[in-house]
Every structure is written in C-alpha cells, then in structure tokens.
Design a protein that fits this description.
alpha+beta
Length: about 120
C-alpha cells in the first residue's frame, strides 16, 4: 500500500516471515510525524540496510488500522494538493503533483470501459 498524506508518504507491506507490518518511508521526518501523531507506542525508527526505503517502523495490523482510521477522521481540507503545499511546502507539493499527473493517465488510458490496462 502506498499512502500519501499531507504529512508524509509511506509504503506499507507485510514480509512473508513476519506478522508485523513494515511502514516504510524515504523521509525520516515523515515517520517521525506519523509516530508522534498516530503511533505513539512505536519506540524507534530503523535506518538503512534495506532496499528502496531507508527508514521503517514495524507495527501490528491492529495498530496500523487504528492509525489509518484516525488519519481519515482528521481529514479537514477541501483540496489535498493545496493542503500539502501549505503544510509541507512547495517542494513536496511539486513531487505529489508529479505523482498525481502520472496517475491521471489511469483515467485517460485505463478506464474499465477502454480495457487497455
């Protein structure tokens, strides 16, 4: 699962050998904010030694579900991209906008009625 929020970008997976979820990020501060606001029981962020994402935490499915529920309840904005710019600045907003533009191709090229994807 990829999740983009006004406070960070996360990739969440469960490795076969583990019963915990690995919540990964490319930006240390994103995980810091996630922990502070939604996962206060997490004690540390692991760094390095991994593939794509240099920072990660491990949480139970239940803890992640509760965090996602609270993140959803905290949505208080009418425009996501504008809110990212206000809360995280123009640089982060520009990155998210590029992701948005790439995903827009799904609407143009992969609509179910067109069956091209």
């Amino acid at each position: 699962m990829w999740i983009l929020t006004p406070f960070g970008f996360f990739s969440v997976v469960q490795k076969k050998e583990d019963h915990m979820l690995s919540v990964r990020s490319r930006v240390y501060a994103d995980l810091q904010h996630l922990i502070q606001a939604y996962l206060p029981d997490v004690q540390n962020i692991e760094e390095g030694g991994y593939s794509d994402y240099p920072y990660r935490i491990f949480v139970s499915h239940a803890a992640w579900g509760q965090a996602l529920g609270q993140i959803a309840r905290d949505i208080d904005y009418p425009n996501f991209k504008r809110t990212v710019k206000q809360r995280q600045g123009s640089d982060r907003s520009a990155v998210y906008r590029r992701v948005w533009q790439e995903l827009y191709t799904l609407q143009e090229e992969c609509d179910d009625r067109k069956s091209r994807c």
